[in-house]
Amino acid sequence: MEAPLLVSLPSSDPEGPGPSGRVRLEGDRIVLERFVIADPALTAFLGERPAAERAGLVERAVRIGLLALQDAGVTVNVDAVRTEFERMVRQAEQVNERAAATLEQTLRANFADGDGRLPRTLERFLGDRGALRSMVDELFDEKKRDSAIGRIGGMLEKYFDGDASKLALLLDPTRLNSPMHQFRQEIAAGFKGIEERLVAIEAAGAARGAERARSTAKGADFEELLSSMLGEIARGAGDLLDRTGLETGSTIKSKKGDFVLTVDARVARGCDLRVVVEAKDRSMSMRAMRDELREARENRGAAVAVAVFTPTHAPSGIAPFSVVGDDVYCVIDPAAPEPATLEAAIRLARLLALASLAEREVEVDAAAVETALTAIREQLEMVRQLKSQLTSISTATKAVWTGLDTMRSNVLARVTEAEAEIHAAT
After folding, report:
1. 62-79 pLDDT tens trace
2. Highest mean pLDDT, choosing among 224-228, 282-286, 382-386
């Protein structure tokens, strides 16, 4: 900031104040010595004031004058700054106009639509006839063997095309040095080992089957089959089935009787009525069979005994079941078990047991029971004949199966008639 320009007031002192004798600065104080103002008007104005107020008035006048001079200096400085700023603004506008013109010229020279350096460069490299298009066409021209796509095609043909390709040679299992040849040998050896194991397993199974046919294991399988079938029959009739082949009965050290069927107490009128079942998968004479069934009845406290044979070991003339004395004989094929046959035999044994119970109270019509048994045998014989026809005559399959269902229903109906006769007698 520039120092303010002070205008000197006229003075009446001919000698004039000295440069340092009239005004002295002491710290923040201004000291005036021998200060004289020759002005009649101001002298008259000051003379009108009381003498006590004149010193303060002069001090105020000096203070006001100095402040006015200070403000005048600031105003002068602001005008100078404004003038300089306007000059700088004009210069900046001129510089900006020149810079804008120069930038416009530069942009037009570089980015103009037709004549700019950038569009010309892009067209030269990226245009329809540019360097990039030419390079791409050259790299991917299929007709040229030395192009990139041509070299890739040649390499693919070398490795993958035809029987002479490297991939075909590597995957040929007949070539001695190919990886697939070793894999083929390992697979062949593995299958050979599996074949040998299967042959060994089959031979062992055949040996175990032959041994099983000669041992008691086959009998255990037959007993398992009968256990399942007898369980279904017992649940349907409300009876209780116990497997007792490994338990000792009432006779000392006797385990005769493989199964014990306890008749429902409501049907047996509160009596403990039992039917013992023997599973037989070996040949026995009729006399030995009768003795064994008698021992089984005594050992298990049963009223009637049922002997279930396999077709191979069944006595002649009892298939599918028959009543021999006080016992029932039945034939069940383990390979094709017929549940209806076993159910009819068990229900017939229950009837005989109930009949033995009723004999102590009333007289039973034995002729009616025998008639029902005869009809049952006839129906089961027809079932057997129809099954034989089914295996040899394929065209009569539907009729045969219908006849089988009818015969099975008739068998159960005859058993029901026999049961009704027993209930009527009791």
Report:
1. 888 888 877 766 565 677
2. 224-228
Of 32-36, 136-140, 342-346, the least confident: 136-140
CA angle 28, 32, 37 (to 5 degrees): 140
Quickly state the pLDDT bin for 422 (edges 50, 70, 90): low
Count of CB atoms situated within 10 Å of the CB of 11: 13
Per the CB < 8 A criterion, the answer to whether 151 and 162 are in contact is: no
Q: What is the predicted pLDDT for the residue at 306?
A: 92
Contact by Cβ (8 Å): 325, 331 = no
C-beta atoms surrounding 305 within 10 Å: 30
CB 360 within 8 A of CB 274: no
Can you tell me the distance from the alpha carbon of 231 to that of 242, in angstroms, rounded to the nearest whole number?
9
**Contact assessment for residue 222 and residue 281, using Cβ atoms and an 8 Å cutoff:** yes
The two structure tokens encoding residue 71: 């403000």
Q: What's the CA gap between 280 and 411, in Å, rounded?
A: 24
Alpha helices in 238-261 (DSSP H): none
Are 278 and 255 spatial neighbours (Cβ–Cβ below 8 Å)? no
DSSP state of 261: E
- Per-residue pLDDT at 31 exceeds 50: yes
Give the list of residues 6+ apart from residue 108 with CB closer than 8 angstroms, or none.
116
Return phi, psi of residue 305, to 5°.
-115, 145
Written as one string, the DSSP assignment of 141-175 is -TT-TTSHHHHHHHHHHHHHSSTTSHHHHHH-TTS
Tokens coding 29: 């104080």
The whole-number average pLDDT for the span 130-138 is 74
Token pair recorded at residue 324 = 């021999």
3-state secondary structure of 309: strand
> Which residues, other chains included, contact 343 with Cβ-Cβ below 8 Å and sequence gap of 6+?
233, 412
Tokens, residue 250? 């009432």
Average pLDDT of span 97-113:
83
- The distance from CA 376 to its chain's CA centroid, rounded to whole angstroms, is 58
Q: Quick one: which of 292, 341, 333, 343 has its CA closest to 313? A: 333
**N residues, the chain:** 426
Per-chain mean pLDDT for the chain: 76
